[in-house]
Amino acid sequence: MKNAKMHRTTTNRNALEFESSWARGPLLQRYDVISGSLNQPHDSVDILKAFKAWEQVRRDVASWKGVAEIRMRQNTNDIAANQQHAAFASASPQFETRDSEIKRLILESPHRDVLASHVGPFIFKRWEFDLCGSDPRMHPYLEEQSRLGTRYTRILATMQFSLHGRPFTQPELTTLQKHPNRALRREALFEKWASFEACSEELDDIFDALVRSRTSMAQALNEPSFIGLAYRRLGRIDYAVSDVRKLREEIHEAIVPLAARLVAEQEQQLGIEALMPWDESLYEASPQTPIHVPIEHIMHGLKCAYESTSAEIANFWQELTHRSLMDVYDRPGKALGAFCEYLPHIGMPFVFANASGAPRNALTIAHETGHAFQLYSSQHYKAMDLIIPANETGEIHSLSLEFLLWPHFDSILSCGVEEFRRTHLRSMLMMLPYIAAIDHFQEAVYERPEASVKDRRSIWLEMEAFYMPWRKHGDIPALLRGGAWQAQRHVYRFPFYYIDYAIALCCALQIWQESRVHYEVAVERYLDLCKLGGSLPFRQILMRAGIMSPFERGTLARAAVEAASYLL
Q: pTM for the complete prediction?
């Protein structure tokens, strides 16, 4: 009842309005008051008061971050939005320092057990881990990395494309990659990569600066490399680099051969001798699935699909749309990508995407809705740390919801539903080798931070050959020179995050397998998973949900066998 009341009282607040209380000075003053109270002798009542005050400050900081990120990405040319985004980026390291100080004071408090009875003991483990990856010496490096990341985002958002004298956005060019006219597909891909090639030197400079900054940051903390520090900052409590390497090995052993068979089938379906880059997104010579679906139809179709999946998800979607907490239409100046931001000041998430009318847009929006629904479902926890899960856990929610929509695709598409399902599963499986390549590439780069731009491009070509041996480059200069990774924003903005999609996909494939036999059971498992939020370590959350660990040998191989029986 309290949560419902909170939603009613916040409904009329403007979700994307900057609030005067979200300013560095007032927020830092509130932090200082809380630290001061914990630095002095205090009792069990005091620690609870301090925690509640701190929790409110953190929610205000998260709201400022979310609004600033959304506003900047909605219009990268908006001067005021860019200023607010820069202001938060500048202040963020100071907030991080204050958060770390308060975590340390609570962990050292003789009354921490009182707080454990209030929020549970796992939160202390998260804080202990956070403190290992948080240090004031990192602040200037983090500020620099934020500026460089914003510069990268702005370059991609302001790229201009034209084809046959008509301007195109990048999502529109991506849509053309499914066009039955092979010459048009080739032209569209050339246009995309020509724009990247024109910016390649600047993109190389940005990445080189990021590698140097991240490596220097690790050295300042006496770390052997950035890799271990990145893992701690991502909150990877109960698994390590060695576990991820095992997963990459299983992708190479179980998925790469299956993917090679799928590529051979794709070549046969298309009637071509070799799959070229401009063929990769098309699976049949005369596709039945429409090239363009009106975005309004996609949104209505999603509404119907959610109603058929779960009353809880349907009610959430209704509130999300009623309160205009989505921006999904593609337009010039809008940043690329899709994401979900939690806005604690209104007690709701916000969904951001770039829909251009491709059927795939429905899955992208559903993916971000999965993140949003989990945040909404986990608000019963009293701490932000328990509401917001680690990345790999959060991606299970988003990828699983995509699979749970399978029986309801006919709400979105008027024809070609079965082929759309097959394409969805096929693209998920084909993504795994690419994800492994990106992750392995990053590991190799940060193991050799002194490598030249040319060396890094050679490393990428080696990764492509190992994980995607079927991949051709045609006569596209950017791809021939090993520059395909420059389009992957995670490499620039979220180092080592991308493998989380592979970890989560191994889990989501198990939800898919269950849904094919017992759909209602799979939905209930999904709802329970969302309610767990980030309240337990990754492996324990999987155990509670009845999901096998992706780091256990054979987990992915079993999913590969069932996927092969469905697709081949």
A: 0.87
